Structures are given as C-alpha cells and as structure tokens.
Amino acid sequence: MPKFIDLILISLLMLIPSAHGSELKVSIQLWSVKEELKVDFKGTIKALADMGFQGVEFANEFGEFANDPVGLVEFIRSQGLEISGAHTVFPTLEPDKIDATLAFYAAAEVPLVVIAWDDRAFDPTTVWQTIADLNRLYEPVTQAGFLFGYHNHAEEFAPYRGKTTLWDHIANSTPESLVMQLDAGWAKTAGINPESVVRQHPGRTFAIHYKASSPESAGQTRPIIGEDTINWAALIVANSEVGGTQWVVLEQEVYPDGLAPLDAIRLSKRALDGFLQTAER
C-alpha cells in the first residue's frame, strides 16, 4: 500500500507543469516576522500581502486563529494569499498529537507539511533516526491528504561516509515523493551550490526557501537577496527545469543595518521579483 500511494503522488507531481520565472509562485516563511506576528498577526499578514506575496508558509504562529483553522484560512484568503505549507517538528506528529496536528492543518487547507528541524540529522551516527521517523510518518501524513517534506540547515551538508552528504543520504533513503525542501541560504553557508542540489534530486523541490544568508554568514555580504553571492538566476532555472518547484518561499532571518524585518523583506522581495521577471523573458 505505501508503495502504491508513493507512485500516485509521484504521478501527480509529474502532471504539474514546469513553472518558469514569474510563473513560480512566491510565498513568505512567517518565521521571518515571528515577533511581529505575536504583536499584530492580521496587520503583519496584510503588510506582506501588500508587498505582492502570493502565499504564506506557517511557522507555528497563528495569532488569534490558534484554535480556529477555518477562520485562519478565511483570513489568509481575504488578503489575496494562499497557504503554501507549514513547518512543524517531529513531536507534533507523535501518536498522542498527530491527529490534532493534521486535523488543524487539514481544516486550514495546508497542502504541505514540512519537518523544519531535527538535530539528529546533523550527525552521521544518528541521521538514521531522522530517516526512520520520516519513513514512519510518510504514510499517515500523505494518506491524510498532505505532501510531506523535510527542510535543511547547514549541518545536513556535512559528509556522509566520505562519498555523499547527510542531505543526499536522507533523500536517497526516503520515498521519492517526499519533498526535500532545500534552504538555499543554509546550503550556501555550508559551501554548497544550491542549484546543484536541486539538479541532483530532480522533482523533489516542490517548495524551496530563497534566503540570502544564514545568521552565521551575516557580515560577509549584506543578507539581502541580490546583494549576496548566490546565483539566483541559475537557481531559478534549476527550479523551473528539474525541481518540480511550485513555491519559492522567501525567508529573511537577518535584518542588516538596523532594518525592520518588514523593510528587509521588502528589499529581498523586490530583488527576487526582478530575477523572476528576467527569467521569464
């Protein structure tokens, strides 16, 4: 049964037409404005919608809608936005919590559930535990109607057995339709070209994080898209050609020169829009 479900999901993903340039939809990872959401959830979402984002990716902060997933999706839609996905962690999917977690996401019409972080994946001796949990949860999550995925930090690009990386090992040891949500900024921090990662795992990047840099690399270049060292044009082509990418999720974790988070996001969004428009031509 799990293999049959996997084949269905792979087939559905293959039916989705490749997006090019501005056809890629742009979402915002709400971790970028985590403090602002705590103060004014609705106002912050409205400000992001005004910047031209097409979607939001949740990071476990729902403001006044924490117990009202239907109201949450209605409000998001009222701002002209879609929900591109949600980040969570393994404990929310344990037997005593998984039903409530997935019920909330289903009512909120979340299409993609992503494991945002698991430090067991940072160590060659414990990465198997991460893989085991991804494989164990794959069937219940996908049977509930979601895409299921895993998100990287820099540590997953450490060598694994001298031949590959921990990230590659996770990808090679999980179902082909498990979304490998690459974080371009963390890959770059680890000295890895994000474009090559997308091409190495074709069809597995339904959603990707576009981030100029991680906190650790702040100061080397200004952590604003277009002012950093990632080749965004090449990455957009890779996402369009082989990634199976539908959502580019902008994330802003560093706010240089005293910029307010929304102002830093606005600068990165403006540059990203330019790269996407150029790619369309």
UniProtKB/TrEMBL annotation:
Q: What is this protein called?
A: Sugar phosphate isomerase
Lineage, top-rank taxon, reads: Bacteria
InterPro entries for the chain: IolE/XylAMocC-like, Xyl_isomerase-like_sf
Q: Which UniProt keywords apply?
A: Isomerase
Q: Which organism is it from?
A: Arenicella chitinivorans
| GO molecular function terms noted in the UniProt entry | isomerase activity
